[in-house]
Amino acid sequence: MSERHDVTAPNDPRLIELRERLGIVRTRIAAATEAAGRQGNLPELIVVTKFHPADDVRRLAALGVADVGENRDQEASDKAARLSALGLRWHFVGQLQSNKAKSVVRYAHAIHSVDRPQLASALARSIATEQESTGRGPLECFIQVSLDDDAGSHRGGASRLDVPALADQLAGSPGLVLAGLMAVAPLGSDPDAAFGRLAEISARLLEDHPSASGISAGMSQDLEAAVRAGATHLRIGSDILGSRPALR
Ligand SMILES: *Cc1c(COP(=O)(O)O)cnc(C)c1O
Predict the structure, then answer these.
(1) 46: CA distance to ligand 1 center in Å?
(2) How many independent structural domains does the chain possess?
(3) Is 8 part of any domain?
(4) Host domain of residue 46
(5) Among 23, 44, 160, 217, which residue's beta carbon has the most beta carbons within 10 A?
(6) Ligand 1 test: best mutation among 68, 71, 234, most atoms within 8 Å of CB?
(7) Is residue 192 domain-resident?
(8) 112 CA: nearest ligand 1 atom
(9) pLDDT per residue as tens digits for the range 199-233
(10) Quick one: pLDDT band at residue 5, thresholds 50, 70, 90?
């Protein structure tokens, strides 16, 4: 077998590129946090690696990234299995079918896209079985809430009216931790206004669930607006990894 190129060698061109892009994004996050008067209260950076190869995840880990995001179970479970030695936290950020719950709980640290009671039930059942056989820790769950004004430009998520019941369900499920809320700003709308609505929904949620303070918001295009609105978790893909290869 020929010797494999070490993708984390200091002269690897892609490693150098990722270091530079990651540095720019980290600088943007620090500047936005400072500008928002959040005094060093930096949000967590989740690097969304979907469609990019496992070797890029290896490089990111070598650059100090500890949290990565994926949006398809097949791809995520393959990568997580191959890269298990790296000790990364895997965040599932995509739409999830209930029949994938069993698979996702094998590798995911957090699910950012819980949007309906059936999915919450499936996750509760699956995590119970998984914890029994592996002793793994609890699964963090963010409720994805829709910020659309109308039903037209739907980017997924529960209606804000459905948040309280879903929150109670998650909080009452052993093995699941209600971490907070997640949202994607509606296409073509003002992200400050959208994330402002999210902050209101979060404040309302905190009245019933004081520990559910997570706000997962902000992508490459709108991370500054998300930081202004109090985001605790940013999900950044293309500004770090470049544009995604076409769907395979
Ligand atoms: C792909 C994706 C991201 C990252 O988006 P970029 O625009 O590439 O930064 C964040 N959140 C979700 C839910 C995604 O699907």
Answers:
(1) 10
(2) 1
(3) no
(4) 13-241
(5) 217
(6) 71
(7) yes
(8) 13
(9) 999 999 999 999 999 999 999 999 999 999 999 99
(10) confident
The enclosing domain of 200 has a CATH number of: 3.20.20.10
Show the beta-strand stretches assigned E in 126-216. 139-144, 176-182, 214-216
Q: Using CA atoms, how far apart are residues 232 and 226, in angstroms rounded to an integer? A: 9
CA-nearest residue, atom 6 of ligand 1: 237
Q: What pTM was estimated for this model as a whole? A: 0.95
Atom of ligand 1 nearest to the CA of 240: 9
Are 95 and 77 within 8 A, CB to CB?
no
Q: For a ligand 1 pocket test, name from 71, 219, 224 the mutation site with the most ligand atoms within 8 angstroms of its C-beta.
A: 219
Residue 201 inside a domain? The answer is yes
For residue 208, tell me if it sits in a domain. yes
* Contact in structure between 128 and 106 (CB atoms under 8 Å): no
- Cα(228) to centroid(ligand 1), Å: 18
